[in-house]
Amino acid sequence: MIFEKKPVDSAFYETRIRDFLPDRIIDIHTHVYLSRFLSKSKLGPERNVTWPSRVATENPIEDLNEAYSLLFPGKKVTPLMFSSLADRADDFEAANAYVSDAAIRFKYPCLLFARPDWNAETLVQKLSSGPFKGIKVYLSLSDPGISDITIYDFLPGEQLEVADKRGLIVMLHIPRNARLKDPVNIAQMREMDERYPDAKIIIAHVGRAYCNEDVGDALKILSKTKNLLFDISANTNAWVFSRLLDAVGPKRVLFGSDLPITRMRMKRITENGRYINLVPEGLYGDVSGDPNMREVAGPESDRFTFFLYGEIASFLETGLSKKDLEDVFFNNANNILGGVK
Q1: H-helix or E-strand containing 230?
Q2: Which domains does the chain have, with CATH numbers?
């Protein structure tokens, strides 16, 4: 067993999750990778948090399938898979080939993890090497010389044009310290929505709006967009989920897990505009130097369940109808995947 499932987890799933979810689920945001693809020598500055690596150093396809069996008994879950690459020194060729092979083997959809220095011709060539339905891009792959990065520094217009022309999916984790409310992010998301209407651009993690303070007037402004999609992966903020649904409606919201990191046993809280993952003492090593982690001992920590269960339970607090939940957890993603040219 790749991780322990306790009675508290089973009870949480059976009483608060299972009956609300459809029998078929599409997980639009899942990482599949082996540790040997990741370089030990970094070519750029650290632009991402490091606590996720405490959960799993790798997530082979077999572990993903086992995780679904443990986390979602009685449900059939299909992932949209992509690798997990955060540095230009990582082995993109091997990592993408592994995802492609796993997708073919298990008949799962997948995305190509793209480098921002690939031109349109290179991107098309890479896409044709496997059953890829689009691309995953990441902020830490930007040119190391750029200190104040924007979306276009790791998702260039040339690649967006390819995605738009072919109707491909783009999984986008937005940058910048202000997250969703950042005015540069907002302006560029609106521009992408207008300029590339046929690209299926998914704003991951509700634009990293993990705290109420991350939202500002962003969702009010983005409610005027027509095509942008949002996944709820690795987010547990019910208030943010409600504002998202008010802004764009359930048809543009997608369930994503962000496995393997949401296998973490924890409870997320927010303090002064910062999210903090409360974890059982000693379970994830020394976290004293991480501002997003805090250990808890005793009976309180015994009640902690999986990060993923916390995400889903928080989303269910929005009170969506059974039909709307079927859309978020299956139909919306199914329609998007089926519409890729």
Answers
A1: strand 229-231
A2: 23-264+307-338 (3.20.20.140)
Sequence letter at residue 283: L
3-class secondary structure, 268: strand
- Tell the burial category of 46 from Cβ atoms under 10 Å away from its Cβ (0-12, 13-18, 19+): exposed
Separation of alpha carbons 329 and 107, rounded Å: 19
Residue 45 has pLDDT above 60, yes or no: no
pLDDT confidence band for 235 (50 / 70 / 90): very high
Per-residue model confidence (pLDDT) at position 47 = 56
DSSP helix/strand/coil, 89: coil
Give yes or no for a contact between 254 and 222, defined as CB atoms under 8 angstroms apart.
Answer: no
As given in the structure block, the two tokens for residue 195 are 């300029």
Query: Percent of the chain scored above 70 by pLDDT?
Result: 98
Q: At what angle do helices 307-316 and 7-16 cross, to 10 degrees?
A: 20
- Under DSSP, the state recorded for 70 is H
Respond yes or no on whether the N-terminal peptide bond of residue 260 is cis (omega within 30° of 0).
yes
The pLDDT of residue 46 is: 59
Longest alpha-carbon distance in the chain: 57
Q: What pLDDT, in 10s, does the model give residues 146-157?
A: 989 999 999 999
- Is residue 273 left, alpha or beta, with left meaning phi > 0 and alpha meaning psi from -120 to 50? left
Structure tokens given for 310: 């916390």
Residue type, 140: S
Dist CA 126 CA 132 (whole Å): 9
Peptide bond into 45 cis (omega under 30): no
Q: Which pLDDT score is estimated for 341?
A: 73
